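Hi support team,

I submitted a single chain yesterday and got back a structure, but I'm not sure I'm reading the token output correctly. Could someone confirm the output below corresponds to the sequence I sent? I've pasted both exactly as they appear in my results page.

Thanks,
R.
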Amino acid sequence: MGWFNRLRESIFDIGMKTSAKWFVLSAVIGVVAGLGGVVFQLASQAVLHFTLVSVAHYAPQEPAGEHAHFEHQTGELSPWLVVAVMAAGGLLSGIIVYTFAPEAEGHGTDAAIEAFHHKRGFVRARIPLIKMVTSAISIGTGGSGGREGPIAQIGAGFGSLLATYLKLSARDRRIMLAAGMGAGVGAVFRAPLAGALFAAEILYKDADLESDVIVPAAISSIVGYSVFSAFLPADVRYLPLFGDQVEHVVSSSLELVPLSILAFILVVVGILYIKTFYGTRDLFKKLPIVQHLRPMIGAALAGVCGIGLYFALGKDERALAVLSTGYGGLQGAMEDTGRMGVVLLVSIALVKIVTTSLTISSGGSGGVFGPSMVIGGCVGGAVGQCFHNLWPDLVPHPEIYTIVGMAGFFAGCAHAPISTIIMVSEMTGEYKLLLPTMWVSTLCFLLCRRWTLYEKQVPSRLESPAHRGDFLVDLLEGIKISDVPLRQTPTVPESMSLRELLQLLPGSHQNYFPVVDANERLVGIFSTDDVRAYLYDEAIWQLAVAGDIMTTKLVWVSLEDDLNTAMRRFVELNLDELPVVAADDSRRLLGMLGRKEAIAVYNRRLAERKQASLEQA
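Hi R., thanks for writing in. Yes, this is the structure output for that exact sequence:
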């Protein structure tokens, strides 16, 4: 661990509050996330080559920009051996996960989100390794899952681990965790800009961003992308994941009408996806068997569904896009939806929902972003082909709907419209489709506000435990003293004798007594405790007056001050009341501010803010 100590010393030498600190830390996270992406891709392809390809003679089609590390030579497909391989992969994955790190089950992004909000950014050191191994096994043996969940948790885990070893604050650890997420996603999908935005946006259900994360995540995402790309051959190094050979444009602004219809269809399918995903999870949790075996059952059932669709469609291997990542089927839909056909596209989309739910919700390891791209793209391609058949002049390029469907579907399901728009554009090289993609993604986001694929998202920063203190101050600073009802407390002349004061106290509920001069101007204040010191000294009852026992070191607030200022003075001096004076005259008393009244106004304002957030959601 010597290099950790040297890095720690270097960070402190640079200065913990400088921008250089985040450049160094983010770059280190990016390097590790990029290398993690390389190892993960190599591991998953190795598992695929020595299991599905060698045993069942099935090699899933990869997207145009993907680099294959192994040359697959397949014979005649053995359908039921596919099921056997998937079941074996699910069994091995389940044993590893539930033996060593149960929190590594399912899709990793939710675990990283939960760590950010509720665990002070802390992730156990073993999680990244366990997640990498089990996800490679699950996806490599044909389980329906994506790569973003595993690689996001790998990057997030290292960021958290690095912050812990450097003994940084919880805030810094959260930022580094999110930067690791962005680096992993930006590297694996070759989408550095989207990776940075994804890390900042995926944490919240509403249209909110974790602004502190963007710059560190951008640096780590760029470095991660560069490291990952350096290990690719020159012919695909700077090629988008799905290639850039397809050129599409929207022919008319009237095409926004069928695109709007597409958005509504995507929302319906998205709700079906979310409910199926978590409904399947609940069913598996009720199974009266050891949890180690659940991923095996889920993977086997997913394999049966995939093989069933294969036979139902006349042994069309394109139907097997419902297994593994499914990117090959999506590539075909982007290039020529007519060749794929509406029936095949719809079948892949619906069965992919089932196979993904069975694979991941049973406890298997994999992400949900990749399957979402396949589902949304196939639904979009099918809708585009239908509109092309009905109005070929209005919809001359149905392939557009595949790309737009990818973005819109995940934007609605994950509540991450901005990063999804950018990510799909970077993955496909289709920046000309920003307008329709923005339109459909925005509609899907607005219509799908009640449902989310990531349960651990919180509505906004206001509800996040990570920002609880920040928003306490923000809310207090937004409330003026003039918004709080003041106590109209009777004043005491500075010439009032101590005997008169002692007669006054039993009939009063006051704890603090403002003292004024002959012109009714505030000159001091005393409390009941100040008077008690003289209770047993009758000799000075007639001699002492209010001016003798009061304190002239006044602590006050004006109507223009905010509640945060008042609360700091309450706490610093352990007071229950503060004099409130005019902003232009600190000797003109307007009333007394009580701590209870101040807290009541704060609680009421906080409840109003939360209610507004719920109504927006």
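A quick pointer for reading it: The first strand starts at residue 492 and ends at 493. Let us know if anything else looks off.

Best,
Support desk
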